[in-house]
Specification:
The complex is a heterodimer.
Chain A (H helix, E strand, L loop, with lengths): L6 H18 L5 H28 L10 E10 L5 E8 L1 H24 L6 H19 L4 H19 L6 H32 L4 H5 L4 H8 L1 E2 L2 E2 H16 L8 H4 L5 H10 L4 H8 L1 H6 L4 H20 L5 H21 L9 H31 L15 H15 L5 H16 L1 H26 L15 H16 L5 H4 L13 H22 L5 H8 L1 H8 L4 H39 L3 H9 L3 H24 L1
Chain B lengths: L1 H20 L7 H15 L7 E3 L4 E3 L1 H32 L2 H20 L3 H19 L6 H32 L4 H7 L4 H18 L7 H8 L2 H26 L4 H24 L4 H16 L8 H32 L10 H4 L1 H15 L5 H16 L2 H27 L13 H19 L2 H9 L4
Antiparallel strand pairs in B: 1-2
The chains are: A mainly alpha, B mainly alpha.
Amino acid sequence: MEGYSYTIWIVLLPFLVFLLTGLSSMYIRPRLAGLIGTGGILITLLLSLLTAAQYFSTAPPESGWPTLIPFDATWLKFNDTLAVHMGILLDPISVMMLVVISVVSSMVHIYSLGYMKGEAGFARYYAFLSLFSFSMYGLVLATNLFQIYFFWELVGVSSYLLIGFYYDRPSAVAAAKKAFIVTRFADFGFLVGILLLSWYSGTFDFVMLNNPDGAAIAGAASATFMGASVLTWALVLIFMGGAGKSAMFPLHIWLPDAMEGPTPVSALIHAATMVVAGVYLVARLFPVYHLSDGPALDIVAWTGAITALFAAVIALTQDDIKRVLAYSTMSQIGYMMLALGVSGYGAEEGLGYTASMFHLFTHAMFKALLFLGAGAVIHAVHSNVMGEMGGLRRYLPITHGAFLVACLAIAGIPPFAGFFSKDEILAAALHHNPAIYGIALLVAGMTALYMFRLYFRVFWGEDRQYHHTPHEAPAVMWAPLILLAVLSAVCGFIPFGQYVTADRLPAGSHLDITIALTASGISVAGILAAMALYRKPSDRPAQIAESLSGLYRLAHRKFYIDEIYLAVTKNVLFKGIAWPAAWFDRHVVDGSMNGIAWVTTRVARAIKGIQSGQVQQYALSFVMGAVALAALFIYWLKR
Amino acid sequence: MRHELQLLAVILVITCAEIYYSGKDKSGVVPLSIALFGLHALAGWFPIGEGALFGGMYRTHALIHFLKNVLDLGVLVVVLQTAGWVKKQLVPENRVSEFYLLLWSSLLGMYYMISSGDVLMLFIGLEMSTLPVAALAAYEVLRMRSAEAGIKMILMAGLASAITLMGISLLYGATGTFSLTVLSQKLTGTGLETLGFIFFFAGVAFKISLVPFHFWAPDVYEGAPTGIAGYLSVVSKGAAVFILMILLLGFAPALSGIWIGVLYLLAILTMTIGNLFALRQQNLKRFLAYSSVAQAGFILLGFLSAGQDGRASIIYFVLVYIFSNLAAFGVVHSVEAATGKENMDDYEGFYRVNPRLAMVMLLALFSLAGIPPLAGFFGKFFLFMSAAAGGYYVLLLIAVLNTVISLYYYLLIVRAMFLRKSAHPLPVIQNDYWMRASLLICVAGILVLGVSSGVYDYIFGLCVRL
C-alpha cells in the first residue's frame, strides 16, 4: 500500500491535460497543445513503468501476487449496504495494462505530431486523445464494477469523438455514430449484468467479488431465473458488454467502419487499448466466471473462436489496408477471448488465462506497429487501397523493416513476440477442447496468409504510377515505429507465467515443442502461399477468387452482417413501429391541426374545429385507459 | 405553513405593484418579480419545523419541505428563462403581473398538494396547480396554436379532474374517510377500492403524462409559450411525481399488490411509446415532449423498491431532470425567441455559430440520455438499482434497452448541431442576462450533481420518512 500514492497522477494528469488543452484549444498554437499532450502522456509513461518496476520487483508472498489499493474514496452511497467507490487497484493485470496503455499511447502521441501536422483541429485532437487516455487508465485501475462501467462509457464517448474527428466527412460521422450506438447497445447488457451481480452479492467491489470463498458468489449462484442461475445470467450479460467493446461476433460491425478515424487513433483505440477492454473485463472477473459453474465461460470461448475464424476469412478478401488490419484485430481478440474461455483456475489449468493476457500484451505492441506503419504508408501514397500500392519497400525502407517485423510477429514466427503467446494459447486450447484447438490452428495459418498478402501487395509487386515519389515519414513518425518494432521482436521472452496467472501464484512457462512446430509450420505455409500468390503480380489470386466465387463474394461482403442488421433495424424498428407512430402523429395529429388552420384563422372558429376534432379522441383514450386498467386489475384481483 | 405564506406574500406584493404601476410602463415588474421569487426560493432553505394544521389536513416535515424547495428551483429557472419573452411580448400588451400571479398560484397549489394530509386538500391542490397553467398555455392568445393548447389542456384537465373526483368518492364510499392516515389503515384492497384508486391514479398520471394519459402533452408543449412548456414538463410533472410517491409509498402500501402492477405496466408502455414517438419528431418542442414522456416512464422504476433508496432515487432523478430538461428548453427558447425556428433541420451547423449554446444543449441531451459523468447518468443508474432491488429484471431489461433507443434520437440533435453544415445557419444569438443566468444554473446542476455525492446522501437522509 505504501509508496504507490503517485499512481493517482497516472489518472489525473491526462484529465488535467484534457481540460487545459480543451479549454484553451481556440487560443493556443496547435503545436503547443500537441507538445503539452505528449509531455503529459510521457510523464504517465514514466509513472506507469515505475509502478510496474516497483510492483514486480518485490517478491510475492506465499499467497501470490497481492492486490493493492493505494487510493479509495467513497463517492456515492446508494443505501446502507451498497456504496459506489472510486479508487485505484493494482494487481498483475492492471499493472500490465498500465504498461500497455502508456507505451502505445505515448507512441501514438509522438507519432501524431507528424501525422496530424497541419490538420484543422490539431489542438482538439490532442485534447480528445488525453480524454481517451484518462478514461482508459481509469478503466483498468478500477476497484469496482461501477467505476469500470463509468470509465467504460467515457471511453465510448471519447472514442466517438475521435472516430468522428473528421466531422466534415459523412462516412466518418456515420461510423462514429454506429460505433457509439452498437457498443452502447452491448453496454445495456453490461449494465443489467452489473445490477444483477451487485444486487445479489451486495457489493461492486472486485476484491470481494473475486474472493472464491466469499458470500458474493454463493448468494448469486443460488438464485435462479429461467433455468440458469442469476450469476450465470449476470456474467453472460456482462460478457455482452465486453463483446461489444471488443468487437466480438455478432457485435463487431462497428469496428471496420471505425477505421474512418485518423490512423493513429485506430492504432491506439482499435488495436491496443479500447478493444481489449472486453478481454480485460472478463479477466478481471475471471474467478467469478470460473466458479460460476455454468455455461458462461463456454460462451466466452466459443464466441472468441467463432470471431477469430470469421474475421480471418473476411480479412483475406479486403482491399483496404486498414480494414484488413481491423479484421485481423477482431480475429486476434477472438484468440484472447478463446484462451480465457478454455482456461482453468490453478497452476497448469490456468495456462489459458496467462496466455490470453500474454497475447494481449504482445498483440498491443505489434498491432499498434502495424497500424502506425499503415499510417506511414497512407501518409506516403495518400490512399488506403492496396490496389494503388506496390513496390514501396524501395521508398520506405524504415517502414518496410518495421512492418515486416510486425507481420512476422503476428504470424507467430519464432523468435518474434506473437510466437510465444500464440503457442501458449494453442497449448491451452488443446488441453481443454480439441475442436477449438483446430479452429485456432486454422486461424493461425490464415493469419499468416492475409498478413503476408497485405505485406507483399504493399511493399513488393510492381511500382504504381505515384503522383509524386513516396518518401519516408519524418523522424517523429518513424522513431515510434522502430521502438515498437524492437518491442515486438523481444517482448515474447518475458516470462509471463511468473507474473500473471489466474490464481496469482507464479507458474513456470514452458514451450510445447509439438505445438510450436505445428503452429510455426502452418504459419510458414501461409507465408509461402502468400508469397507465391502476391509477390509478383499475377492473375492467380483472381482465378482462385473466381473458382470460389460464392464464398469469396460472401466473405468480401463481410457475410452481409451489416445488411442483416440494417434490414432488421430499418424494417422492425423504423418501418414497423416508429414510422407508423410518426405517421399517426403527422397525419392524424398534425393533419387535424393543419386542417383547422385551413378552415379558418380565427381563434373562435379554431376552437370549434378542435371540438369536432381530436380532443375527444384523446379523452376517449384517457377514459378507456383508466377503465381498461381498472378492469384488468380487478380481474386480476379476483383471480 | 411558512413557505406557503411567504409565496402568498410575494403574490400580494406583485398585485400591489400592478396597481402602483397601472398606467405606467410595467417593465419594472419583471426584475421585481424575479428578485422577490429569488428571495422566496432562497428563504425556503431555512429549516422548518414539522407539524400538522387544520386537524391534519395540512402537514409538513423536512422531506416535504425539501420537495417544495426543489420545485422552487425549477420555477426560478423558468422565471429567469421567460424574462426576455415577458419583456418583449407581455409588457407592451400590459399582461405582465398576471403572468407571474398565475404561475405562482399554480406553484402554491402544488405546495398544498404535497403537504396535504387529506384527500380533499389534495384534490384542491391538484386543481389549483392545473387551472392556472391552462391559462398560461393559452397566454399568447392571438397565436392560434397557443389558444388551442390552452383549450386542449383545460378540456383534458377537466376530464382528469372528473375521473379523479369519481375515484375519490368511490374511495370515500369504501372507507368513509378523507384523512390519508385513516385511509391507509382502512384500505384492504377490495374491488371497489381498486376501482376508486385507479380512477384517482389516472388524474395524477395525467399530470405526469404517463401513457395512455399523455396525448395532450405534445400538442400543448408545441402550442404553449416555450417557457410554459418547460414548466409543464418539469415542475408540474415533478410535483405530480412527488405526490404520487407520498401517496403510494407512504399511504397505500396496503394496495401495493395493485399499484405495483399498474406502474409496472405503465412504465413499460410509457418508456417505449414515448421513445418510439420521439424517434421521428422534427419539431424540437414536440420532440422534447415525447422525450419527457419517456423520462416519466423511467421514474416509475423507482416506485418498485419500497425502501429508502427507492424514494431517494426518485427525488434525485427529478432534481437532475429539472436541470437537464430546462437546459434543453432554455436553448430551444432562446433560438425560438431570436429566430422563430424550432425544427431540427434549423439546428444544423448550430455549433459553428453559437458554440456556447450548442455546448449547453449537448450537456443537456447527454444528461437526458444518461451518459456519465453527467448527472443524468446517476439519476438513471439509481432508478435502475431500485428496480433491481425489487427483483424486476424483465422490466429492467426493457428500461435499459429503452435508454439505448433514446440515445439514438438524442444523438440526432447532437449530430445536427455539431456535425452538419448548413447552407442557412441560424444567426448568432445574443441572450439577455436572465437567460444566461438560468442556463448557467442548469449547467452547474448537470455537472455538480454528477460529481458530488453530498446531494444524494442528503436526499437519502431525508427519505427516512414520508
